[in-house]
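Discussion board: Methods & Data

I've been asked by a reviewer to show the raw model output for two of the constructs in my manuscript, not just the figures. I'm not sure how much to include, so I'm pasting the format here to get opinions. Each protein appears as its amino acid sequence followed by a line of discrete structure tokens. Is this the kind of thing reviewers expect to see in a supplement, or should I convert it first? Here is construct A:
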Amino acid sequence: MNLFWHPHALFIVLFLLFGLITALVNYFTVRRFDQYPQARKFPRVSVLVPARNEERNIEACVASLLAQDYPDFEVIVLDDHSTDGTRRILNRLLESAPRLKVQTGAPLPEGWLGKHWACHQLHQSATGDLLLFTDADTRHSIDMLRASVSALFAEHADLVTAFPREEVVTWGEKLLVPFIGFGILTFIPVRLVQRLRWTALSVTIGQFMLFRRLAFEAIGGFEAVRAEIVDDMCLGRNIIAGGFEWRLLDGTQHISCRMYQGFWEAVNGFGKSIFAVFDYRILPYLFGWLAVGMAFLEPATALISRWLHYPLTPLAPEPASLAVALSLLLWAAAYRRFKFPAYMVLFYPFTMLLFLLVALRSFVQTATGTATWKDREIERVAMRWL
């Protein structure tokens, strides 16, 4: 039993215990939209959707937004130079949807990323006191606007962001996509971040961002983050730094999204942004992923390799077994909260290994300036050690 107190084993067990405590606190304190009383007033909302080559998603997204039971809203979609059938579908929807407006995107200026420029143009066309930015691959329940606006007022928030229910179909999606929800639940003490206004640990999710217009414009909107890969994260941090109120809520009852369709789309999507979340700081990035990999992969490796009579790590069976049990509890909590298939918990070492490889790929692509997204090159950025 003394091996439990070996510094290496102790680090792994304490790391996982901290993660489990954080996950349990988040599980029971991060609220859903439907846990708030209905607001007394419902100001005009502009629902803003950038769309580039979204013919497989745009009709279902827009239809779900137009069906809202909210009294005063508009839906504005910007066609960002699509080369598929996106505009044709939007034009057809326009014929029977007076609340819908469709814009044609202006040429991309130097120094702007494509989606950010599209969202900037959408903001300029909006007439609402509240601005909801959402992605073209999302779907929304009929009471989403009513519930989210009620949550915003109840929380006295200037930005409400929410994690949707992520739909996963292929094995590649099932192995990669759940890591994001797991990471939020395990490593972000949401209520503590909110109370202490820790910008560095705040998480804002671009699939759903509901702003008070005055706060959004006070922080400079998308123009202030026009070259940032993780614009959503930066907008949330700017809200907090500007003295406004940020809230992260559970939107899984009201919003769904198939973020990526297939393994390589997920790899490329995550690869463009993972390193950016760490603000391109090399040592925190490398040490962070090393710690995560060691805590979640080494215990399973230790048990399997000892069972095969070929030990690959000095980690003793007792702390390794405890660490695997803690890991299973952590992943089970995340999969239940984010509504992923329960049986995938057993595959958590594969999810972790794959995401470590994606994280390494993200670092290499950033360092070499080879990252792309939606047929557009992402400019090489400056990295720093700390």
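Construct B, same format:
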Amino acid sequence: MRAPGFWAIRKPTALARALQPAGMVYGAITARRMRREGARVGAPVVCVGNFVAGGAGKTPAAMALARMLIADGRHVAFLSRGYGGARRAEPLLVDPAVHGAALVGDEPLLLAAIAPCWVGPDRVASARRAVAAGADVLLLDDGLQNPALAKDLAFAVVDGEAGFGNGLCVPAGPLRAPLAAQTPLVGALVVVGGDDEAAPSIARAAPGRPVFAASLEPDALAAAPLIGREVVAFAGIARPEKFYATLRRIGAQIVATRDFPDHHPFTPREIDALIEEAARRLAILVTTEKDRIRLGPKYARAVATLPVTLRFEEPQRVKGMLLRALR
């Protein structure tokens, strides 16, 4: 899905106000569901979620936290719903050598490169499979609003530029539930990107919660061939403009962009058109790591990728909080 433009306008528009009663009902239902008591499965659960519908950097944040835990000697497993993949009843352990995005979703394939990743709609069943397979820490990618599992620590990832949009609940705005209902259930906020005022401004919306600033840093080796080169960029993520800004930051010269909805299943016709456009302009065709996964092997070879890694400004503070929660 692509977020409606009026969600991002800080002062609610007339359309947002008209939808506000529906948003209040939706938010109240979600808030009530979030307060339910979750199940314990024999291993601590760390949730990486967000307050709003759409992307904020949850998957890169989950990967960064997993690396911290693995470096500390923990046996980590990811739990994911597998958004964009095939429907299933039983949990499935993702195998990147066998499974494709159409089966398990795009984000689980990224996660599985770091640690075992289980996908399935039943988070408790996935968690029990992961623990039985040897996991001693479970990282829940998304799921802040899902009460099925008891969470020992929850991080809310916030886009430093988008913030909370107009501050209203779906469908009037981007919030999944009122902030006042969500912030008591998280241990800390992770603010990704934005200017120097982003983190302090967002912190005021969640008093008493630690705020960790972070940024998405492009891979230097992947960036090198793009520096100074003309590129045709495309992305099917929640905010494609963030990807384009990263390309400009490394020195790539963008000559055309093409936006697609988040998790968009690319068709051969769409990719052929993009390849032809890049060839016509004598430019490099480039996309995100998440989008490249959905292209399939045939087309992936024709497209350059710019992976990014989430970097915390104060990693030791983050790691300290993680380890205290696990104790």
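Answer (T.O., handling editor elsewhere):
This is acceptable in a supplement if you add a one-line summary per construct. For B, something like: Residues 33 and 147 are 7 Å apart (CA to CA).
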